[in-house]
Design goal:
mainly beta; Immunoglobulin-like; 3 domains; seven-stranded mixed sheet; six-stranded mixed sheet; 28 strands; 49% strand; elongated
């Protein structure tokens, strides 16, 4: 009797159909469950927020996660301790936009965000440390008495009270609600400053006042009462060329002429359209000696894109930024 040999491929096909290769349909093996994990990716270490300041109080909290957690809790920490719960239970979407708040805690640079999975033990993460400076209700107020008249050169003590500032203030000299310049920039908000009285070359007048303003919050300020100032030491710079109405061709060589107060030794020249700075005529690191005038300038509009051909030259005493002179309007045309 002849033997019938079954091909190898047929044997393999029969084995597979009987569930002898791997696991059969009657015995499925589920993959192992993925462990729950959370990683906070925002806020970042070193970030800074100012509750109360609409431009700097939005925090985008972001995280990634593994596992099956459906809901998460978000908390605010300070120095590692719980301050308060930001949200007790929200969908595990990886994102939550929060209007930042100190939630009753003092300002500091040791805040952090903790995101944890609800119902999961040890499934959480904490952000890097960031800064919170509460500016809600920022106030400033002068507390010193102002005399009727102040005299240039005298030292006058300014004092003020404050709440919820960013920690630094500027003090402006003003007249008829126009800023004449800064007498202090970015000083500590410690409540006092000794001012060496100066009109910033605006001369004697009876309508000066001071404004103290948070260095970062232009809406948080206080004005002093109006006072008179006597100041006879006035710096001046007169630019006689170009006169108003002059037309200079770009690329041509032209002389800038000026005279100034005896105490001026060097100046820097700048080009403006109206009050918009266009460029430096000389590099500010190498001011021009008064003795070098007339100064020859290869006329240049610095590829101005302001849409105007009307310009002013401004000269600034390199030792005193408030000693300034400028020309009337003149025109620069293509050569």
């Amino acid at each position: 009797m002849k033997k019938i040999l079954t091909p190898l491929w047929a044997v393999l096909l029969i084995a597979l159909s009987m569930g002898f290769w791997g696991c059969g349909d009657d015995d499925p093996v589920d993959p192992p469950a993925e462990n729950c994990g959370i990683t906070v990716t925002s806020p970042l270490a070193g970030d800074s927020y100012r509750p109360g300041d609409e431009g700097h109080n939005t925090m985008n909290i972001r995280w990634t996660s593994t596992g099956d957690a459906d809901l998460v809790k978000i908390e605010l920490l300070k120095a590692g301790a719980l301050v308060d719960v930001i949200h007790p239970s929200l969908p595990n979407s990886g994102f939550y936009r929060w209007t930042a708040s100190n939630m009753g805690a003092d300002n500091g640079s040791d805040f952090a965000i903790r995101v944890s999975a609800n119902g999961e033990t040890d499934c959480l993460d904490v952000s890097g440390l960031f800064t919170m400076t509460n500016t809600a209700g920022c106030t400033l107020d002068f507390t010193n008495e102002f005399p009727d008249t102040l005299f240039a050169g005298d030292v006058f003590g300014l004092t003020w009270s404050s709440a919820n500032t960013t920690g630094n203030v500027d003090i402006q000299l003003r007249r008829q609600d126009q800023s004449l310049g800064l007498i202090a920039i970015g000083i500590d908000d410690d409540g006092s400053y000794d001012w060496t009285v100066d009109s910033l070359h605006n001369g004697s007048d009876g309508y000066y006042f001071l404004r103290i303003i948070d260095s970062d919050l232009d809406y948080c300020y206080a004005d002093s009462v109006t006072f008179a100032m006597v100041d006879e030491d006035i710096c001046y710079i007169d630019i006689s060329n170009p006169p108003a109405g002059t037309v200079w061709a770009e690329g041509s060589s032209q002389n800038i002429m000026l005279t100034g107060a005896p105490e001026i030794s060097t100046v820097n020249l700048r080009l403006y359209t109206g009050n918009v700075f266009v460029g430096y005529i000389n590099h500010p690191s190498t001011p021009i000696s008064i003795d070098d005038f007339p100064y020859t300038w290869d006329v240049n509009d610095f590829d101005n894109t302001q849409g105007t051909s009307m310009y002013r030259v401004q000269a600034v005493n390199s030792d005193d930024q408030y000693c300034v002179g400028q020309t009337g309007f003149f025109t620069i045309v293509p050569q």
